[in-house]
Amino acid sequence: MEPARRGRSDMWEHFNLITPDKVRCLVCSAELKYHGNTSSMIRHFTAKHGAAVNQGNTNQVDRKPKLDEALVNMVVKDSQPFSIVDDCGFKEFVALLDPTFTLPSRRAQKNMVLQIYEEETKAKAVMQRVEAVSLTADMWTSINMDAYLAVTCHYVDDSVKLATVLLGLLPFPEVHTAVNIAAAMRSLMEE
Ligand SMILES: [Zn+2]
To answer: Where is the BED-type domain positioned along the sequence (predicted)?
Structure first.
């Protein structure tokens, strides 16, 4: 009996009871009749979102912060609206990749963006108070063979500790001249 009970409790992580005889799938918002057992839910979930019924959710808990962050980065970089998490096609795509992943709400995304912004603002404020900084530039190449220039700033902070902040990551022109590096670093410092 143990595996059946386990499957049953897992299913309620993916469905909400919306009326006494109706449940809604949290992945695709489909509404199903509920007859007092989870068999139709298991059938729907297995057919539409892959067979992850008996899989524990430890993995999901570990990966969630990273996936949430990656989603917010995507929204910002690609100028997507926060409401992308409510788009049917996107939800189906994500559900196919990982049926156990619960997309963050619009509000959760907004809070994450605000947090990143506040951290960057704080770093900027500290750097405006310091007398001198030391800049280092590192070149690296992504898996797609695109070159990037990473500019890191080192300084002594208010509590006389050495602090390091990554100022930015710039796609790098093909000609790696000292003039280009200087121009890139200048544009980062002006931001
Ligand atoms: Zn569904």
So the answer is: 6-56
CB-count exposure of residue 28 (10 Å: 0-12, 13-18, 19+):
middle
Q: In this structure, what token pair is assigned to residue 65?
A: 């912060």
Domains and CATH numbers, the chain: 1-55 (no CATH), 57-129 (no CATH), 131-190 (3.10.450)
Q: What is the pLDDT of residue 6?
A: 46
Give every strand in the sheet of 134-141, ordered side by side.
134-141, 147-156, 162-171
**Distance between CA atoms of residues 190 and 153, nearest Å:** 13
Pair of tokens at residue 30 = 């489909």
Q: Is the pLDDT of residue 32 over 90?
A: yes
DSSP label of 103:
P
Centre of ligand 1 to C-alpha 29, Å, is: 6
Nearest 5°: phi and psi at 142? -75, 175
Residue 25 Cα to ligand 1 midpoint, Å, equals 5
Q: 21 C-alpha vs ligand 1 centroid, how far in Å? A: 17
Residue 163, pLDDT > 60, answer yes
Ligand 1 centre distance from Cα of residue 109 (Å): 23
**Total-model pTM:** 0.42
In whole angstroms, give the CA distance from residue 171 to residue 56.
40
